[in-house]
Amino acid sequence: MKVTVVTFRDIFQSEAQELDRFGEEYRKMSAVVFLDKNDASKAGIKDGSNVLLESDNGRVVVVARLSEDSHPGLAFMPNSPWSNRLIPAETDETKIPSFKNISATVRVTSDGVPTVEDLLREMVS
Amino acid sequence: MAVCTGCSLLCDDIEVSIDGRRITKTKNLCRKGFGRYRSLSSDRSVPKVDGKQVGIDAAISRAAEMLRDAKRPLLFGWSCSTLEAQRKGIELAKRTKAIIDDTSSICQGEIVEMVIRGEIPTCTLDDVRNYGDTLIFWGCDPSSSHPRHMSRFSYFPRGEKLQRGHEEDRTAFLIDIRASPTAKILSGNFVQIPPGGDADLIDAMLAVLDGKIPRVRDKKAMIAMMNTLKKADTGVIFPGLGLAYSLRGRMDRLKALVDRLNEYTKYNVIPMVGHYNMRGFNQLLFDETGFINRVSFADGIDHGPMYSVVEASKSCDLAMVVGSDPISSLPAGIAKALARVPMITLDPHRTLTTELSRVVIPTALSGIEAGGSALRMDGVRIGLDPIVKSEYPSDEEALSMILGAI
User: In chain B, which residue's Cα lies nearest the Cα of A87?
Assistant: First the structure.
């Protein structure tokens, strides 16, 4: 399923980040994507499913959550090292990355959600 | 009273009870600020060189050596440091002929620059509380990002000229993509737009002001909103990251709207700066160089996009990161380029960036363990007094030690 990924700030995630960027709580709050209920249902994605998000820039596995509000075609992700896997490294002449308007696909996966340590290992590989 | 450095509101009404180094009770903190205070005892960084724990002096002298040897160093971060530390940072950049940039380079820089240059009018948050009767929150979610913004300053309080508060005297609109927690508060005045739809919305708003029919689905609601905006005594626009990213490179559109609204009545702009002293760094660097970010001191003073953290991460031969976690916050492809560069990081906490740094210099937590001053999001200077002692130096002290050792 094609979606436009938009990142946002979440107060609970910010609190978890203040306390421990390597902790399970921060991962739980960050490695997540909020999908429209109807979109998710059409794509066979359930609340709590692991999903693979892929953009032209990269891919990442996170947990799907279904939003109360309707937002067809949009996928909301808390801004984090997980969402940053999808953000293009190439920028326009402003040199400001495009954090809030990313074309991506999303599908159910049996792969696990990476830890911060996994992301760091890939960073230096 | 203590000050919270959890965001750029710098709330200065925090009550804290302390037992030794332990904080036993706090009052008035929001959830985010409470997290900042609790972080005093969680996951603190330790001095390291090449992955091995060392004494702080060894970490400082290794950092000085690396800076001395670097040909094209990048000094990045700065938005979570005091003004006093930032001043030392600019001095260090001059001394090492470095590129210096801060987090505004990848967020609110364009809008903050217009405010600092006086290209768009601004006011203080106290002015907003007392006189701001018509507000536009745009591409932001203060309930999550600046949790006490609406209660201390902008929406709920009764101000000097607004004794009936939000119930009667204040009107606030929210323009955003997402039905955020703030959208729940302002549900009657929530204008939902598609991603990247901000410029089109501005065109529609300007069309109404020109007496034309706006090209939007709900023309009636748009005309009603513009009538309300025109009738304001004192209007304030709070641009967030949503607007900053959507309009990047086209901030003349925001300026056009603000100028046009000012033909009717007074409209000011206060960007929703995230980190507690980003505004301070931008102001200091501007006063020193005429630019708010992206400056190179390699040959006099030079400025441009090639000195942005995004570009400099690919071209520098050393990065010193102060109070920031670019490995976490940059797009992965850019973070990967930065990870290939030897890094020195000054931070109170363990971060993704400290994990990949050759040298880690732990620092005291500003406002809790270290004093100084900072500029609130509206440019008002707020003093910080430490409430507990730290075993590690403040950013300012650590930077002074590095300067002394170079």
Answer: B331
Give the C-alpha separation, B279 to B142, whole Å.
17
Count how many domains chain A has.
1
Domain assignment of residue B196, given as a range: 109-269
> Reduced to 3 states, what is the DSSP secondary structure of residue A109?
coil
Q: Is residue B11 part of a domain?
A: no
**Phi first, then psi: what are they for B189, rounded to 5°?**
-125, 35
Overall number of domains in chain B:
2
Q: How confident is the model at residue B165 (pLDDT cuts 50, 70, 90)?
A: confident
Q: Which of B204, B239, B269 is the last residue of a domain?
A: B269
Residues 30-59 of B with CB under 8 A from A: 30-32, 34-36, 38-39, 42-43
For A74, phi then psi, to 5°, come to -110, 145
Are B58 and B118 found together in one domain? no
Query: What is the SS3 string spanning B351-365?
Result: CHHHHCCCEEEECCC
Residue A101: which CATH number? 2.40.40.20
Q: Which domain holds residue A93?
A: 2-124
Q: Which parts of chain A fold into alpha helices (H)? A: 11-19, 24-30, 37-42, 116-124
CA distance A54 to chain B (A): 13
Does residue B178 sit in the same domain as residue B70? Answer: no
Distance CA A27, CA A8 (A): 15
Q: Is position B98 within any domain?
A: yes
Does residue B3 form part of some domain? no
Q: Tell me the Ramachandran region of residue B156: left when phi exceeds 0, alpha when psi lies from -120 to 50, beta otherwise.
A: alpha
Task: Report pLDDT for B22.
Answer: 87
Nearest beta carbon to residue A84 from set B241, B308, B330: B330
* Mean pLDDT confidence for B93-111: 97
B304 interfaces chain A, CB cutoff of 8 Å: no
Selecting from B144, B195, B355 the residue whose C-beta is nearest the C-beta of A6 gives B195
Which sign does the torsion angle of CA B360, B366, B369, B373 carry?
A: positive
pLDDT at B21: 82
Other CB atoms closer than 10 Å to residue B169's CB: what's the count? Answer: 15
Distance of residue B303 Cα from the nearest chain A Cα, in angstroms:
13
Query: Which chain A residues contact residue B38 at CB under 8 A?
Result: 18-19
Q: Which of B23, B29, B43 to mutate to test the interface with A (most CBs of A within 10 A)?
A: B43
